Task: structure prediction
Amino acid sequence: MHPTLLAPSLLAGDHAHLAASAQTVAAAGASWLHIDIMDGHFAPNLTFGPETVAALRRAGAKLFFDVHLMLDEPQKYIEAFAKAGANNITIHIEPVYDHRRTLSRIRKLGCQCGIVLNPGTPAAAIGPLLDQVDLVLVMTVQPGFGGQTFRRDMLPKLGQIAQWRKERSLKFRLEVDGGIDLDTARECHAAGADTFVAGTAFFKAADKPAFAATFAAL
Ligand code: DX5
Ligand code: ZN
Result:
């Protein structure tokens, strides 16, 4: 359905030189940049803000900004990230807010929209929203940090969502995030994923263009 692609995660980049890390992603031939936003509540860490995204745009980044909001109240921040230059904004299903209204507001702001679920959340939680999103993100680690171990027990959930996409002729991208490298990406691809977030594996790769090319050829 969708050409497979790699979305390197800026969280594993050089926090003293984020624009250079974005340039490294572009130079490797990747077209997406995954940007993790955490509030210290929903996820036990603090990362970047809208000004970071805007500064990367001012620094000349032309990549597709795939912004992953790990926030208790994402509905309060979507305008700021859209204005800052986000291309896709993905919100979590777990916190209590108007998910459907927030997804349509993200689109009205000119961005693509995504819904994401944590490892402990069943696929059924997002079933009613699948016809309204451009992307579904299945977390393969608990949000909060890079460098964690891939959770193989998420593969059945990935397969279930891919099955629903097929049965309902839906067109959303199916993304995975957490502990993704060439081996775990192949397992996720076999289960239906087409979009692969990789932080540690990408920024540690000796040959980044070859690494990125492998994902495009999955
Ligand atoms: C974790 C983030 C991920 C993380 C992935 O909460 O959502 O995007 O940066 O990093 P790796 O690929 O190192 O697991
Ligand atoms: Zn992420």
Notes: Residues 155-167 form the longest helix (13 residues).
